[in-house]
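TICKET #2291
ISSUE: user wants both folds in one file
ATTACHMENT 1:
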Amino acid sequence: MPLKDILAALVVIVVWGANFVVIKVGVDEIPPMLLGGLRFLFVAFPAVFFVPRPAVHWRYVAGYGATICLGQFVFLFLAIYLGMPAGLASLVLQAQAFFTVAIAALVLREAVRPHHVLGIGLAAAGLALLDLGAGGETAVPMVGFLLTLAAAFSWASGNVVLKCAGPVRMLSMVVWGALLPPIPFLLLSAVFEGPDRIVDSLAHASWRAVGAVAYLSGVATLIGYVLWGRLLARHPVARIAPLSLLIPVVGLLCADWFLGERLGLWQWLGGLVVLIGLAVNLFGGRWAAKVREALRPS
């Protein structure tokens, strides 16, 4: 892989890993649904006037906006607002890899291999250990945990939408898909957070809140997805996809350094088991093939 692509991959890993800390900073000052509305409002505008519409049917653009943009971040922002630790959220969200396999099997009739089942089982055991560790220094509220899993399911659903859409320019999909979420986010904010809180949050927004919105819209969404899409276009998916395993590592470290989230032994053990499950899901087929080749009589 060329040096510039290695650097691009490192940028994406750091940007997306730190994203969870920025979300935590954002929801501490801006109500979560309002934060989501602002994030995608600034992703879509003014970029939509300069970026061409994706060359796919509108239903795929709407499906992407409804799942990866709206559904994922409604659940994720609310989970972190309700106390889900940012570092653990970055880890639990990676359950999207397993949900993607399951949804693709049901919708696209893609085969589920034994290593997928093993990986899912390991990840489920790791998530159970995270729940056992809820009494550690950093508590894991059950509602936040379940909302983060719902966010992972939404992300996975969006992955299948993209699979059905076929080849697409990711910058166009990100910008035009972001047209859908602002209105639902702002309606949810008006109903559940109230006009008074919206006005107060906007009128008294600190530099931290403004920076959080700018980071989430401009850096995590536009820069992150554009770089990631270019990497996937230039290199085999098998070479790029495993890099996502480093995102929760960065997320956990950033949460420790900047938010003081201290994990208990069971939580670290659960996180390790989840990462092993993710690795088995990504590499299991290749490992099994190498074992069969080594055992084959010469």
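ATTACHMENT 2:
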Amino acid sequence: MFNNTNEILWKRIAIIAGIFSLVICILLIANYIQINKADPVNMSVIKTLTDRLYQNPNDNQLREEIRVLDLLSRKAYFTDKWQIRTGGYLVLAGISIVIIALQIIILGRKRNPGLTDEVQENITLSQKKARRWIIIGGASILVSGIVFAYFSQNDLKYKFSGSVNNLIINQKDSSGNNNQQTPVNTNADTINAEASEQPSIMAKKDSIVESNGLNNNDNYPNFRGPGGNGKATQKNIPLSWNGQSGHNILWKTEIPLSGYNSPVIWGNKIFLTGANNSKREIYCIDKNSGKILWTNSLEKIAGSPVQAPKVSAETGLAAPTAATDGTGVFAIFANGDITGVDMMGKTLWAENLGDPQNHYGHSSSLMIYKNMVIVQFDQRNSPKLIALSVKTGKTVWSTNRPVKLSWSSPIIVNTGKRTEIILDSEPYVASYNPDNGAELWKIDCISGEVGPSLTYANGIVFSVNDYSKLSAIQLGNQPKIIWENTDFLSDIPSPVATEKYLFLVTSFGTVVCYDAINGTKYWQKEFSNSIYSSPVIADNRVYLLDRTGIMHIFKADKEYVSLGEPVLGEKSACTPAFSNGRIYLRGDKNLFCIGK
């Protein structure tokens, strides 16, 4: 029986819940004001210290101070993010309790038989007005809290996304450690159970797309090799060279226009692209001599912007790596121009996909699948995945994607059951059928301005982005996340994996080795220079180029073992290509051929 005691109890519950919700909303509003007015991780301090480090590169104490501040910035970011999310949930819970308590009080009251109908009607009317104002007030508190939480979250991304890593921090070279750390959401039993559903995932052909001869040992058809996974099949690759003395440098050729794209190779031909504000060019270079065989210039393309877009210096106007299938070479540039050129340099087709609306510049590299050019076109207006005919450039299929900006590149994997194109852009890692563009699956697990591409090995896809998280996704009938980590995150270099190990590289020079199955950290290594290039595994070795041109070569194993640190003698931000026992590496000015 509902009585006065019960009513008093529920009134107190409603009052306490209301005060609690109000306090949380005030804290969310205060947090929003703090994010806009304060510098919670001292970005200006880090910038000042970094400028000092440029002037005193041997100041190891200063390097360590910057490193500590970088770690604190990440902790501050994730703490604020957790507080905003938790605060929103608490406000929602508090308001819900208020509404429930008031509803119980109203339903529990009975009409008083001692009152006239007129008086009773006035009381009922007053109660309705009170309820209306309570609902309006509660809704206002709830909406205010959610709105300020939303804007706080966006401002947090804007202030922190990539801001520390873009300072290009030099790190002190120190020995690795074997401190093991188990991440969240590890479920090895589930992994082993699902492995039985995918009998061919353990095969050595894992992740290599066997179409159009793309797995030929001499061919390196796209960014990070066959499938785009950062694994090369070549053997007998050099461990030592020197660009200044010429040791193991077979040739070097100056490239006319700059570009951060990597070489692609078919047969005896290498392809690169370059661009400036007025020119966009494709170069064909003889693989054995380094001679430029031909240059193709893009001119008078319908719809091409009159002026070159404004792009970041780290991206440039020719960041995407081209792709080739042996019948032609296909290239895309920062203004949306895309073209197909035959192996002799004759233009097959050219068109403009629209000026990519992003503030760094388009950098997603192309892929070839069967007779189609695959284009990840995740820009601000109408992000999409496109397949163009290699012969005509006409659209074979186009799939709209409900995602935000991305600078990563697609990968193509053969799981043993089917071939999939897999991409990452906030908020999804998503898979598509390469024959028709139909979405196969997607998982909400990534945020921010995504730069690193995915990698794949042993039935697991790995995604990462700075100020987001590292996620391992087990493929199968229902793909799912099997482990995650937020300790080390990358904003530029893409990870690479074997059946046993995942190697993650940050742009400020830290390399981390994880157990690919359960996420246990085996070791970390800090190099002295920043790294933009993505690691490549060849002959069970990891080849990792830093920004100064030093190639760090180490075993692809659970213990860090250095195999060499040869010097190119020229700065580079590009990922190497491998063919027939040689390394082809683009520096800021020259293309190098490295071999015995």
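RESOLUTION: both attachments delivered.
EXTRA DETAIL ON ATTACHMENT 2: The two ends are 92 Å apart (CA to CA).
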